[in-house]
Amino acid sequence: MHEHALRKELVRYSHLVYERNLLVSMDGNLSVRLASGLFLCTRAGCHKGFVTEDDLVVVDRKGALVRGHGRPTSELLMHIACYEERPDVNAILHTHPPYAIAFTLADRSLERLVLPEVVLTLGTVPTIPYETTGTQALADALRPYVRTRDVVMMDRHGAVALGKDLHEAFCKLETLEHTARIVLAANSLGGVKELPADESVRLRSMGLKRYGGPPQSVAMADAPRADLPKLSFEPSDAPYPEPAALLPRVSGDEHLLGQSDAVRALARALVRDHAPLRAPARAPEA
Ligand SMILES: [Zn+2]
After folding, report:
1. Domain 3-233 has CATH 3.40.225.10
2. DSSP assignments along 61-79, one per residue
3. Which of 19, 141, 191, 273 is 20–30 Å from 133 (CA)?
4. 110 touches 238 (CB < 8 A)
5. Distance set, CA 105 to CA 99, 108, 153, 251 (Å)
6. Whose CA is closest to 114, among 60, 38, 175, 29?
7. Rounded CA gap, 85 and 216, in Å?
8. How many A from CA of 21 to the centre of ligand 1?
């Protein structure tokens, strides 16, 4: 695609990531690889919801400004590291999707195998350990992960999504955040059922052959676990708390001694109204 058309697309997807709540304020940055080998990207310090073509800059392979007004973002180092690792990738979106970031804050893995469509198209999403934003250390930390993954989470920070074009990268980013929301909703209803291991491997193998993915992953399509990490098949690292654990633990009203009648009535109503959300009683083990 010619630069003229890519500029219009980059503006459109910048607006879209803001409208879809995948970032706010001056967060994030988007880039595409140009046929010349240079990169077109959003400049530092611009609001993605209001980006115009004037907010786009062209940079070289070291991140130095070639054309355009404004400063290239310090987070460009991440983009360049990803392009270097993945010659098949032409577009990168870096955003701060709130639900997916919440998973990293709570130390909840996004590498669990739960939704068939996601296993098919994305595999799993690793979270890389915390590094300071805009540093070479963060860019280098991403490298090994993006060789086999199109979407990576950075602890306490945000997501990086790679695609052969902007549309593909956007779809993957959207899928990540959508999954985080679904898992959170399921968890609030009592817990998350994982896919059986053999079905996960079958789906992933099928997905890599049908939809492609990182070349290193596609090469693993027929491996015993396809490209899925071993930890996805291990017992969940941090079991999700049951909703009952979040409710006041009361047997009677002892904890309300000294409170007014109105407060006691309110507390009783709260517990009663939340009762249907409590996890079902488990049958005693034989
Ligand atoms: Zn960021």
Report:
1. yes
2. TTS-EEESSSPBPTTHHHH
3. 19
4. no
5. 10, 8, 11, 33
6. 175
7. 11
8. 14
d(CA 123, CA 208): 9
How confident is the model over 88-140, as pLDDT tens digits?
999 999 999 999 999 999 999 999 999 999 999 999 999 999 999 999 999 99
Instruction: Kindly list the catalytic residues.
Output: 75
CA of 243 to the centre of ligand 1 (A): 32
C-alpha 49 – ligand 1 centre gap (Å): 15
**Which sequence spans correspond to the domains of the chain?**
3-233, 243-277
Which amino acid does the sequence have at 104?
Answer: T
Q: How many whole angstroms from 156 Cα to the centroid of ligand 1?
A: 10
> What single DSSP character describes residue 259?
S
Residue 171 CA to ligand 1 centre (angstroms): 19
CA 179 to chain centre: 8
Structure tokens at 39: 């990169």
Q: What is the pLDDT of residues 148-174, one digit of tens each?
A: 999 999 999 999 999 999 999 999 999
pTM tops 0.90: no
Cα 241 from Cα 190, distance rounded (Å):
8
* Side-by-side strand order, sheet with 29-33: 65-67, 56-59, 39-42, 29-33, 91-95, 158-163, 151-154, 127-128
